[in-house]
Amino acid sequence: MQDFVQLWVYLSATPLFGLTATLVTYVLAQAFYHQMQQAPWANPVLWTVLTLALLLWVSHTPYPTYFSGAQFIHFLLGPAVVSLAWPLWQRRTQLVDRFRPLLVAALVGGTTAGGSAVLIAWALGLPPSLLRSLAPKSVTAPVAMGIAEQLGGVPALAAVFAVLTGLVGAISAKYLFDALGPFTPCERGFALGVSAHGIGAARAMQVHPDAGAYAALALGMQVILSSLLIPLIARLF
Q: What is the mean pLDDT of residues 140-156?
């Protein structure tokens, strides 16, 4: 017990705390996810976030202290996103043939996802800064933060909304697709990528390779379309 306390004191005072806590928690969450036969509710990202939040709260660890170590994992987000291009390259012929309907689907899906959230928040009388932070909720978090800042929203809130959107999409998508009718893996993946960005794409990758490829495509299309259109629409209204 004394050795454990000494190890905790050492880790909590160095950047190794955030790195170690994140890696260990995610490995355990991933093992639990496989033990539950990859049930959507057992999503490892969800349980890792909840566990780390509880750990920081119980240990009174400031977030900057945690992130000083976790930033090494955060850095890998860029290469991970770039690697999504490989399954797209493998399916480049069929993607070129379907480009127009996919573009329309991305436009309609992205507009519905962001617009419905803003309209509901507006109907509830929420402040304008919150509306601007909600608009890019279906875009991956780093881009959502940049869009929210450009709109005059709160980047931190935009990141929270984006992560929550991704988690809700990854957890609920299977049940919604099964209830609404039969869909191909490509359709499921694209819809998940449009509405739940990177977290949804990660879930789609685990379910089916075609679903993962189309989710990655939808993720990229949403980043481009949202970065161009959301600020333009905001100026009009």
A: 86
Q: Which residues contact 178 (CB under 8 A, 6 or more apart)?
A: none
Per-residue pLDDT, averaged over 141-154, amounts to: 86
Q: Domain check: are 159 and 55 in the same one?
A: no
Are 137 and 69 in a shared domain? no
* H helix intervals, 98-208: 99-123, 128-134, 141-151, 155-180, 185-207
The yes-or-no verdict on residue 186 having pLDDT over 80 is yes
Contacts of 72 (CB under 8 A, 6+ apart): 15, 19
| Residue at a domain's end among 45, 75, 105 | 75
Model's pTM, two decimal places?
0.77
114 and 176 inside one domain: yes
Which residue, of 50, 75, 100, is where some domain finishes? 75
Closest among 113, 119, 147, 116 to 133, alpha carbons compared: 147
